[in-house]
Amino acid sequence: MEILAFGVQADEKPLIERAFPAPHEVRCLDVFLNEDTAPIAAGHEVISTSVNADLGAPVLEALAAGGTRMIAQRSTGFNNIDLDVAERLGMTVARVSYYSPHSVAEFAWTLAMAVNRRVVRASTRTRDFDFRLDGLMGRDLHGRTVGVLGTGKIGEAFTRIAHGFGMRLLGWDIAENPACMELGMTYVPKDRLLADSDLVSLHLPLMRETRHLIDAAALKSMKDDAILVNSSRGGLIDSAALVAELREGRFTGVGLDVYEAEAGLFFLDKSLEAISDDTLARLVTFPNVLVTSHQAYYTEDAVGQIVEATVRNVLDYSAGRRSENVLVPRS
């Protein structure tokens, strides 16, 4: 069986190509799956997709018409997939339910420290042999308060690092994590967490209930000199509302590894094109904002685990097995 993998980055291509055992073969494409590229999958029973693939109803129907029966998504998130339509079409859908939480947690801290200590500005200056310290003053995080929205595996890993910094720990989630509580975390209502925290980090899935969880009101409730970090899903933050607050001169720093309209932008080279997204164009101009291209998960360890899980998902489908990774079972 030949598996067609969409949206494969150059660094992960050799990992994917080596991972599938005979008689299975994989063909890697750097293009992302959408309505325009869906016809490429014709004749492939199994395809693999990235988190920025468009798996809405029109794409799923095109895939099904072309003979695709199984989708193996190489991510934990699946908000880009219309599961109801996939089930109606008799398609099996699987994801990667777990990979190294340290990859994302460590990168979230990279963003937090970079905006706090003005690392990007300092690096730009020194390349021009400008070694002044004006405008580069940061703050000690030791003794300050961190608010962690979402305390699952990644949130827990982030909290352990915060504990190492000697920070006061506040958490918010639908269920309390005993491991975080052992570290000294206090669970509080979201409004209190936002109001009391010097650093707020988001580690939540994107669902109907969490979309724009950080909206205009939530942003206004935060400290003027707070740091906000999002390495989860872009839709958790109302980007237009964030721009409005930044224009008022608020927040010490904002670190974003995700953006709510990133599909069709992130993972692609748009350097020679005009960007029509006014909100993103405005975000990247603020000196206290750092935007990266959804790379928090992108370590050898995490990508290796993602590939291994994807291979298992395909092999399970072929053998008629079902695992915890299956979102829509084989009909």
Description:
It is a single chain. With 331 residues, this protein is an alpha/beta fold. The chain has two domains: 2-99 and 299-328, NAD(P)-binding Rossmann-like Domain (Rossmann fold), CATH 3.40.50.720; 101-291, Rossmann fold, CATH 3.40.50. It is 34% helix and 15% strand. The protein contains twelve helices and 13 strands. The protein has helices at residues 13-19, 57-65, 83-88, 101-116, 119-127, 153-165, 178-182, 190-196, 216-221, 239-247, 278-283, 300-319, and strands at 2-5, 25-28, 46-49, 70-73, 92-94, 145-149, 168-172, 186-187, 199-202, 227-230, 253-256, 289-291, 326-328. The strands form two sheets. A seven-stranded parallel sheet has the order 8-7-6-9-10-11-12, with helices on both faces. Helix 2 links the parallel strand 3 (46-49) and strand 4. The longest helix has 20 residues, at 300-319. It is globular. It starts with a strand and ends with a strand. Its EC number is 1.1.1.28. GO terms for molecular function: D-lactate dehydrogenase (NAD+) activity. It holds the Pfam family 2-Hacid_dh_C. It is an enzyme of class 1 (oxidoreductase). Belongs to the D-isomer specific 2-hydroxyacid dehydrogenase family.
